[in-house]
Each structure stands twice: as C-alpha cells, then as structure tokens.
Amino acid sequence: MPRKTPHAPAGATQAPAMLVFGAIFATLWLAHLPLLRLPYFWDEAGYFIPAARDILLTGDLIPHTTLSNAHPPLVMLWLALCWKLTAYSPLVTRTAMLLVAAFGFTALWLLARRVASAATATATVVLTALSPTVFSQSAMAQLDIAAFALVLWMLYSHIAGRRWQAIAFGALAAVTKETSVAVTLTLFGADLLGWFAYRWWPGLAAKWCLPRRTLLQCAAYLLALLPLVAWLAYHFHRTGHVFGNPDYLRYNVGATVTPLRILLAGLMRLWHAVGYMNLFVLTAAALLLLWNARGVNAPKAAAAAIPLNVQLLLALVVLAQVAEFSVVGGALLARYMIAAIPLVILLAVNVLRMYAPRWEWWVAGCAAAFVAALFFNPPWFISPEDNLTWAAYVRMHQEAARYVERHYAQERILTAWTASDELNRPFLGYVEKPLSVVRLENFTGEEILRAAQAPESFDVVVAFSTKYEPPRGFFQQIPGWTAVQTRYFDFHQDLPAAAIARMLHGRIVWQERTPGEWIAVIEIDKIRNARAAFPQMR
Fold first, then answer.
1. What are the helix (H) ranges across 359-452?
2. Among 62-76, 87-101, 189-203, 471-485, which is the least confidently predicted range?
3. Sign, Cα dihedral of 486, 488, 489, 490
4. Quick one: pLDDT at residue 8?
5. For residues 528 and 69, which has the higher predicted lDDT (pLDDT)?
6. Which pTM was predicted?
7. CA-based angle 145:25:345, to the nearest 5?
8. Which stretches of 240-278 are DSSP H helices?
9. Which runs of E-coded beta strand occur in 268-366?
10. Which of 95, 208, 330, 355 is close enough to 289 for a disulfide, judged by CB 3.0 to 4.6 Å?
C-alpha cells in the first residue's frame, strides 16, 4: 500500500518557498552569467522577441513585425512588462527568464520533497538544472521554460490536494504554451479513471490509492482550458486563423500526421525525455538498480520510495507529452520535452535513493555526465540550443555581423535566416543599423544555383551552417536514414563555404569555425573589381 495518496495533505514542514526560490535564482543567475548579454538566438530572434517588442511598443497582443503563429501571449507579456519596468536589453530578458526558471525549480523542489525527501528533492533539482537542454532553455526567451515552470506547479498543487490551485496553474500553462493542455487532460483522465474504478472495482481502486472524485469534480479540470479557448477565439477574430498562419499550421500539424513519421517522432521524443544529452547515464543506472533489486523488500527502499500511485501519475504525464509531440510539432526539438525531463529525473533519483549504496556518489557521477554534455557534443545531429553550442553560434554571428557592418554597410547581402534577421533588425543586438538583405532559404546546392542565376541582385554573401554538422556522420551510415530525415524532418545539407564561393564567383574574405558550425563572408568578384577601379570605395 502506498504511504500516501497524491491528494493527501502535506505532512512534513517544508522550508519557506521564497527562501528556496531566492537560493535557486541566485545560483542560476551566477551559473548563466557568461550568457546573459548574448544577443538573441534562433526562434528568440525569429518570433518571441519581435512579438514581445510589439506588445511593448503598441500594446497589441497580435504581432505585426512577424507572422503570428497563435502562440498564447503570456511569456511575451512578461518580457514586455520587464522591459517596461527596467530597460530593453538581453540582460533584462535573460534575467526575466531565469526568474521563471527558478519559479519552476521551486515547484520541483516542493514536489520532490513532498513525495520523497529533502535529499531526493535537492538531488533532483541539481540534476535537472544541469541537464543541458534545461540549462540552455532556462535563460532563453522562448515558451518552454515557462511551460516547464507552470506544469510543475500544477503537478505539485494536484499532488498536494490543492485542486483549484492546480486548475489555476493549468489555465496559466495553457496560455503560456498551448501544448501544455496534454498535462491538464492527463490529470483529468487520472481523476476520471479513479471515478470509474471506484464505481466498478472499488477494492482495486483502494489498493492503488486512486483519487476518489465525482464526475463534476473530474470535469473541473476542463475549466483550465477556457483561457486558451478564449485566446484562440480572439486570435481568429483578429487574423482569420485559429492556429496561426497556414504555413505554420501545415508545418507543425498537417505535414506531421503520417504513421511512419509519428512512429519515428515518438521514438525521438522518448529519447529526448529519457536519454538525450547523457540523461541515459542516470536512467540506465536506475534501470540497472531496479533489475538487480527485483524481489528485494529492503526497509530502506520502502522508506525512500515515492508512493506507487504518484510514480504512475508522473509516468503518465511523461508518456502523454511523448504521445502529443509525436503527432504535433514539425521540428524534433528537445526543448519540447523539458516539462517531462524533471519527472524522469525525479523517478530515477528515487530509484538511486532506494537501492544504490552511497547513492550521493551516483548522483555526482550523473551530474558530471550532464556537465560534460553541456560542453561536448555527441557524434550525431543536435540542435545548438540543446547545450552551449548555441552560445558559440551567437558569438560567431556577432563577429560576422560586425565585419559586414564595418566593410559592406552599403552593399546588398545574400544570406539565409537567421542571419537575415540579425543583419536587418538592430533590436536583436547584432548590428547598429539595418543592412540591406537578400534572402534565400538555405545554402544547399539548389538554393545556391538559383542565386547564381541572378548575380545582379546581391553583392556580398554571408554563408553559414544552418544546422549543426557533427564531425562524424554517426547515423548517416544507416541506409536510408538521410532520406527519412529529409522527407519527414526537414533535413538538408549545406554546401561548404569554399563551394559556395566558387559557384557565385567570389572569394572568402572572413571565416570562423567551431566544432560543427561555421560562418563565412564571401565577396563577389564584381565588388572586388569595383573596389580596385575606385579605391575610394574601400
């Protein structure tokens, strides 16, 4: 029989939440200090910062300097408020997001402390904070860390028996990131399962400590969906689209619903939740200990165990997110699963606490593996935002933008997103004044050939790796893997800078490279010839 149900009142006295929050925020801020002044990266620059800036300047919840994709506005409102009260800068932005992250880690500490122990809670928070994907996202102006925070508060409130508080956090999570409704519906389903079980199998329901609710109480969780419904109705009223512009909807939903893609995406989402970025070190250790301890009923293990019904609930929440993002979400981004990662870590740490001799050393070893994954990339494709690779990307693009602004401020610059926005939008932090940009999709052979047919439309090229390129093609050796990635997951291969320069009749005048990433400035022959004929152009 589990020690307590997920709806039992709090038993032990907990440290004041504000004290925990303050300590976590100070630690996070200091750990991220080298990153706090970096300009905006990828989707920050492409959507979230422009959308928040539109709110700051106009008060309008519908962005007009970027295409609206129907994401709820709560995070953008938070950023606009922080800028209004202080100043518009990356330092303020990243500090504001770290406050949100600390809020989420506080909920995680309270949750783990309630269902396990203070030692388990501390280990869970430390490992989650060091998990490379969570660490990187904690300071990024995107929706995922805010969804992470509010989902954890919803789960803590639910397990603590604070039903209406859980519903309120569920409502806030829904207007932070719409996909968080999967967690709300999981809690609704768990309550409904309890109602059904007590109605037909009361003995089994009591044995598993399932929640005992009326149908009306079960349905109360659906109230958390109403703010999201209201936002989508407002968005439709303003734009004529419920779920964002048609291209966004097609990429994230329409193009994803095929059986093979759902299967492959499901496997990748599960990997992101339980094994990615050295998380497998922790989960494999937990599985090994469980296997070795099967049939053991040690007093220490029983005393340390999270109640079985709580373990099942947390596992259901993880699986619900895996299932959801197997169907929606065009890009296989690990950040989509960061609300599941702390739950996996909590369950794994609970196993270490139960069965591992000197379990603290096991936790320390897992922490070292996470830190290694922050700095060193695996031999396969990753998204740069999954560890500190994103910082190297931003610094290279900063240097390239400064070089181009210094030498080619009056020229037309051929480049792809994200550099097209970096060079054209000074508020992103890369240039002082907007430069003239000619856009292409990427740097594949097809795109470069198309650009070569209109050489009169550009003068300089800023070429770069639009995807992380591992030094060894680990999965590319698998027959058919590249074809599957290209068909279902938007994979493409950029040409190297030297090949681009040859095809466009130019020469590389500046280049920088880090493992897996590069950027180059290519001067086209006609510009070099003009500078030779008219030295005053230099």
1. 359-375, 389-407, 419-424, 445-452
2. 471-485
3. positive
4. 41
5. 69
6. 0.90
7. 55
8. 246-249, 259-274
9. none
10. 355
* Chain segment 84-99, per-residue pLDDT in tens: 999 999 999 999 999 9
Residue 426 corresponds to which amino acid?
A: P
What percent of the chain has pLDDT above 70? 83
Please enumerate in sequence order all residues whose Cβ is within 8 A of that of 479, keeping only pairs 6 or more positions apart, or say none.
Answer: none
| Six token digits for residue 76 | 């953008």
CB 238 within 8 A of CB 230: no
Average pLDDT, the chain: 87
Q: At what angle do helices 144-159 and 181-200 cross, to 10 degrees?
A: 20
Q: Is 480 left (phi over 0), alpha (psi -120 to 50) or beta?
A: left
Q: How is 153-221 classified by DSSP, letter by letter?
A: HHHHHHHTT-HHHHHHHHHHHHTT-GGGHHHHHHHHHHHHHHHHHHHH-HHHHHHTT-----HHHHHGG
Instruction: Identify whether the C-beta of residue 373 lies closer than 8 Å to the C-beta of residue 341.
Output: no
Sheet containing strand 517-524, strands side by side: 436-440, 412-416, 460-464, 517-524, 506-514
Domains, the chain, with CATH or none: 17-376 (no CATH), 386-537 (3.40.50)
Choose among 267, 265, 270: nearest CA to 255: 265
In terms of DSSP H, where are the helices of 33-89? 43, 49-58, 74-85
Show Cβ contacts of residue 107 under 8 Å, excluding neighbours closer than 6 positions: 149, 152, 153, 155, 156
How would residue 302 be classed by pLDDT, with cut points 50, 70 and 90? Answer: low
Q: Which residue has the tokens 């993002």?
A: 325
Name the β-bridge partners of 506. Answer: 524
Residue 212's Cβ-count burial label (10 Å; 0-12, 13-18, 19+) is middle
